[in-house]
Amino acid sequence: MFWTFVGLAFGLIVTSALVVVVRTFQMTSTPVAEPGEPIAVDAASAANHLAGAIAFRTIAQDDSCAAFQGLEDFLSRTYKLTHERLARQRVGKYALLYEWMGRDRSKSPIVLMAHLDVVPVLSGSEATWSYAPFSGTISNGYVYGRGALDDKSAVIALFEAAEQLLQTGYKPERTIYFALGDDEEIGGEHGAKEIVKLLRSRKLGDPALVLDEGGAVVEGRQLGLATAAAMIGIAEKGYVSLELSAHGSGGHSSTPTFPTQIGRLARAIAALEANQFPTRLDGATLEMLTTIAPTQPFGTRLVMANLWLFRPLVIHQLLSDPRMATFVRTTTAPTVISGGNTENVLPDEAKAVVNFQILQGDTINSVLERVREVINDTMVEVRLLSGIQSDPSPISDVSSPAFAAIAKSVRESIGPNPPLVVPFLTGPTDSRHWSATGARNVFRFTPFAYEQDWMLRAHGTNERISVQALADGVRFYTQLIRNTEGL
After folding, report:
1. pLDDT over 90, % of the chain
2. What is the extent of the structural domain holding 316?
3. Last residue of a domain, one of 331, 355, 384
């Protein structure tokens, strides 16, 4: 009996080893396409137009009518043919919707999104910029200014592509909408959301493709790649902030009663940090890792080809880096705390805000329920904060014709060597308003090659984009519009 058991165990080990090795060798990557025919772009002219757009302080929080109207007039003057041929409609306060009529109105449309608003410049920080943040200065091959990355570069690239195509007499097969929100940076509730409602009211059906900002072209070495990577968002995490508040008696600090309100609140926050959300390795994150894996050394391929065996190891590795941990769990982040204003007085109230970026599989309601369970204290009130709230989006299909059109356009237009197209999971964008309606072909990609420090610049100091990257973005939109013919 013993030797029978040993024989069975040995056979199982050998069989498992063979399965592991076979699965590893079956993991192959998609061949990288050759670049397409070069598309002539007047890069200097596009840069000048972006510089002109940056000069308008379109800050949603300021509700500046003059700035948004000025930008709209600037676009009208700069792109005359586009404004002659495309129908334009203002939606809400300052959002703009352009309709480029297609040859076949029976086919579902394309929606290309960007936003006109920008974030403010921190008070007192303008002196730290190399150039004034709303000057639109062009220097050493870069366009500087607020909105250069987020997101006026996409607005300008869209119009440059349309103007150039119209000059050749091009007319799209499908109707194309340019949907330009005016309040993305504060939630998009009155811009993009209203545009979605308007288009839905026209009974056009689900768009064949929705493309908004999201991923970008990044240096491959950040992902262990020898080539650049075009990160295409196929889903986005949900978003919610909860307010925790502890109420009770205060008093003099010489006679504290425990727990104090601050102590009660601190215990609640500590419980949330100690009991993180469960991890999951699936969906968009799994698509990202399995796309990258075939380009990796044999050991990495072996692990990724056999997640039935190594999934816990992969998750453990991802959790070791906060930048990667966000891909496998709903994140918990206490961001604001307040309570008390005098050193010898116990406050009768203490409050904190905890932000959650919600992974697919969780929802706002399940987050709220779990937070209350973990805190387990009826004296701590938990409530939803107003503002941006969204459940995670559905995951768009990487085998769809829409994704293929985006990937083809990337390979044909961006950089001297085609980047590897990598699906991944993004944070909230205006496109979530489409996802909320059940639209499936929703993708998130900003068609520019970003510098390694772009995250510090996008909402920070010295925001900029290279003139070359802007020109590649024009080529991308030109190719994408053409490539949607076959959807």
Report:
1. 74
2. 238-384
3. 384
